[in-house]
Amino acid sequence: MGLYKCLVSISIFITVISILTSNVYGAVKFKDVPENHWAFKAIAEISEKGLIVGDASGNFKPDAPIDKFETTRILAKYIGYKFTNVTEEERAYYRKAYDKNKAIITQYAKPFTKWKSAYDYEIAFLLEKEIYTVEDLSQFIVKDANGVQQFRALSRQEAAVYLVKLMGLKSEALSGSYNMNLADDADIKRIYKPYVYYSLKAGIINSEEGGIFKPNGWVTRALMSLFLYNSLNCIDKSEAQKPVANSPSVTQIISLTGNITKVYPEQNSIQITSGSGMDIYQLSPETSIYVDSFLKTRGDLKEGMAVKAVLANGKIIDIQAFGLSTNNSIVPVSNRQISTVEGILKDIRFEESGIAVDLTLINPDGKPGETKTFVLDKNHTIARLGAEISAEDLKSGDVVIADISGGVCLRLLLAERDREIRSGTLLEKKTANDVNILLVKDQNGSVFELKIDEQTKILRQNNQVNYAGLRIGDMIDAYCTYDRLTSVSAHGLKTELTGALLEILIASDNQSIVLTTEDGQNRRFYIIPEKVDVYKLRIGTKVRISLDSWEVEAILQL
Question: Which portions of the chain are predicted below pLDDT 50?
């Protein structure tokens, strides 16, 4: 079905159409967006719709990165959040969403004086609509090693997730099959991959030459305009092409109690007579077969046995048979043949016969594979972060590790994150025993080490660099799989400062200076030896320094 189900509900469809369609399409001209700009058409249409607008001076600032607060406003407006002509019903909904999520928003906002509380209602609105997750709130603001708060820019992979969710295509993304490979696939968070590949397939987001996606690259105002423009075109096309036929039916799970009255070995089928009549049922290739509580094979099913069977779409996926077993010394139920799979929960259904879950299995390459239905065992367990939870706590999109026996799920373990992402400010680069090490300070003030090996991929400002290309003071996102650092994404800022030299440190692997800046602060910066000769510097001299993060590229004596 793919693009045929672009909207979650009729209400969202009406909201989007009423807000985002316009009979007037004009080229909105900004001073800094000439007609030959690569995103001119997208910027014109998106600004006309009011999703992203220019400033009072007539500039759009197309190359400026979008932070998470600006992203919040854009996403909220996209799905109908209103600032004018708000009805009482809408106002009550906004208030209810805010009251429900106020405590968690306050928890994440409290450490930051730069938190923009004016956006809290829109954040709550997106949490309620399940566009944001609670984990997203931790990425709005980060602190560098000096404790300076920085607004976090939206990344390309995050944009893919949010846009797919906004369009109501989450289920399609999680259950899709994608015949494409990105050169930087390993840099995409596994839980984000279905969204990224779906957005690429749908034409919402494009990869660059050579199949490079740059998942951790910043999203600029121009790029976000293009993404929104593409997503609106997707909605328009899919609505025009949407068939009248009903959506495909979900897997039907039923239970059956009766007696085996006929066995058909060649057809892998058995005839069961139950209270509702007599019928022939096929055994699934993965059917779990138990006779008198012992794991058996199809050949052990005999006419006359009493059975309890679980069927999925008419096929038997689990069968418990009783009586006439000639050998009960083989494989008791406690020694079931169990396989462990990783998957994304597509759907969960509570039926009279039991609880059924649809899992989109994750292939070894991290991409979504086929979707299979399993029935939760009557003695199943479900756990998150070591604590047991109930099936009611599960939701679509959860990443799970499942213990499977045939068509029955014995245990579900929710994996909050398959890979750990550690973020912070680069404090120091050092080498020990021929191993390159980064010392990074997170927003809570804790310092941790990152060991870089030959396979670690390093990006800075979205360009691949080596270890030496990183700068002290860079904002670091480290992607770790188990205990290995797989990739590092770094971003720095070029600035200039004026002040007086207070200290010059020469006898060190990291040559540095201390500058008394014009606001009276004493700050340490690190020298790039191939660019600055510290032996020509003199304490007390007034200088202007050019910085790349906290490293000095040039010094001009004033």
Answer: 1-28, 240-250, 325-335, 417-418, 482
DSSP secondary structure letter of residue 367: S
CATH topology of domain 339-414: OB fold (Dihydrolipoamide Acetyltransferase, E2P) (2.40.50)
The first and second tokens of residue 237, run together, are 């096309």
Q: What is the CA radius of gyration of the chain?
A: 29
In a 3-state reduction of DSSP, which class is residue 243? coil
H helix intervals, 167-316: 170-175, 193-202, 221-241
The span from the CA of 64 to the CA of 492, in Å, is 14
Segment 124-151, tens digit of pLDDT:
999 999 899 887 888 899 877 677 888 9
List Cβ<8 Å contacts ≥24 apart for 41-50: 41/229, 42/222, 42/225, 42/226, 42/228, 42/229, 42/230, 43/221, 43/222, 43/225, 45/229, 45/232, 46/225, 46/228, 46/229, 47/225, 48/22, 48/24, 49/19, 49/20, 49/22, 50/77
**What DSSP assignment string belongs to 501-545?**
EEEEE-SSSS-EEEEEETTS-EEEEEE-TTT--GGG--TT-EEEE
The domain defined by 420-491 folds into OB fold (Dihydrolipoamide Acetyltransferase, E2P) (2.40.50)
Cβ-based neighbours of 412, under 8 Å, separated by 6 or more:
357, 376, 380, 381, 382, 383, 394, 400, 401, 402, 403
What's the angle, vertex CA 212, arms to CA 211 and CA 215, rounded to 5?
A: 135
CB-based contacts of 241: which residues, under 8 Å, 6+ apart?
A: 3, 4
Same fold, 420-491 and 494-557: yes
Asked whether the CA dihedral 300, 305, 308, 310 is positive or negative, the reply is positive
Superfamily covering domain 253-335: Copper binding periplasmic protein CusF (2.40.50.320)
pLDDT per position as a tens digit, 1-31: 444 444 443 344 334 444 444 333 444 478 8
Q: Give burial (CB, 10 Å; 0-12/13-18/19+) of 12.
A: middle
| Class of domain 494-557 as given by CATH | mainly beta
Is the pTM higher than 0.70? The answer reads no
Extents of the domains making up the chain: 2-241, 253-335, 339-414, 420-491, 494-557
